[in-house]
Amino acid sequence: MTVAPEAPPVYARTEATTPTRARDRMRYDADVVHAILDEAFLAHISFTAFGQPHILPLAFGRDGSRVYVHVSSGSHLATAVRKAGDEGLPVSFAVTHADALVLARSAMHHSLNFRCVIAHGPLRRVTEPDELVRGWSVLLDHLVPGRSADTRPPNRKEAAQTGLFALELVEVAAKVRTHGLSEDEADLGLDHWAGVVPLRVVAGTPEADAGVSPELPAYLAAWTAEHS
Amino acid sequence: MTVAPEAPPVYARTEATTPTRARDRMRYDADVVHAILDEAFLAHISFTAFGQPHILPLAFGRDGSRVYVHVSSGSHLATAVRKAGDEGLPVSFAVTHADALVLARSAMHHSLNFRCVIAHGPLRRVTEPDELVRGWSVLLDHLVPGRSADTRPPNRKEAAQTGLFALELVEVAAKVRTHGLSEDEADLGLDHWAGVVPLRVVAGTPEADAGVSPELPAYLAAWTAEHS
Asked: PANTHER family, from UniProt (chains A, B) (predicted)?
């Protein structure tokens, strides 16, 4: 299916997406899940091959309730997907932002504020030519919205040579910690500095490649300003 | 063993740490591996439980050639480690930094500059009281060097209640992409802006909790300045 299904307003809560602990940190609203995904530059994917767990960081993009990832065709992951056949390879997919250090008076209450999305499901290789071209646009526009229109698109040969894989967002949920300190009453009078140190990712000045004649395009200038 | 083994100057290259592709991006020097780990606020860990791959983001710290991770005692990961027994639970551990967007003239040559460390090995629960206390110091000083001395240390009961786990860095390597564009000769004349957009993580102004009387400590002011 070339075009991804639309996401529901709220993703279904399932056994796999209901943790044993800290359920108050879970979020199932699609807009929360999608915002966490859309803000990230890379994801990590977990899979089992030769009886061992593996992990891989990779570039990705979201199309509705589908995620596309780019994996080298010669990688262990690509091989494992091929061996898994038509049902796809079971994977676990994560995107996480570290938003703040939470420095408490007591060692045990130190924490990180974070936003995370975890999805489970079968990963399948994209082979249909129209979906390959669409998937590549999704990956590029995920980096910088508008980018796919300002490049030479992949020809069908290129698109087929590189590994594009898709995961449907069905078993998916977000987990967030956004609050300040949670300390034991007895520790509040201790003479230690305590508080929150915010973190964020910023973009520096774009560095044009040698021989580039066009000025910095408007969509990229806007994106850089938004991330400065 | 309470104190972690010293790391070798260069980690051994093994079958598990030699990829099928892009071998020129691999780094085995301990100082490269450690710098990537020490700069990160969180890691992702991959494990297999009930026949399915799982992934989890978590806080961590490094002590020589050992990594400590903090996991809720009630989590699936803690349960899986308990079930695995004395040999530990096989895991795959990753830390990744996205350092720059690489925007090429052709869609296919878009990339990310990144630095990543991946380690494989058995995860074991820390139970020895001295190592629990030491491990907690490592976790705190990983967030901000010097932090562990400016907190109320965990008492033994607290340390035993929360889940601290250790992974020895033996099967470990870094993978890095740091260069600019790699484009096809035929695309160099295309009229698209192309170049690199650097990314970095910055810390904002520390926000003290209500009722904190000490001034911002020097180690934290220095750390914040370094990350601004």
From this structure: 5-NITROIMIDAZOLE ANTIBIOTICS RESISTANCE PROTEIN, NIMA-FAMILY-RELATED PROTEIN-RELATED, FLAVIN-NUCLEOTIDE-BINDING PROTEIN
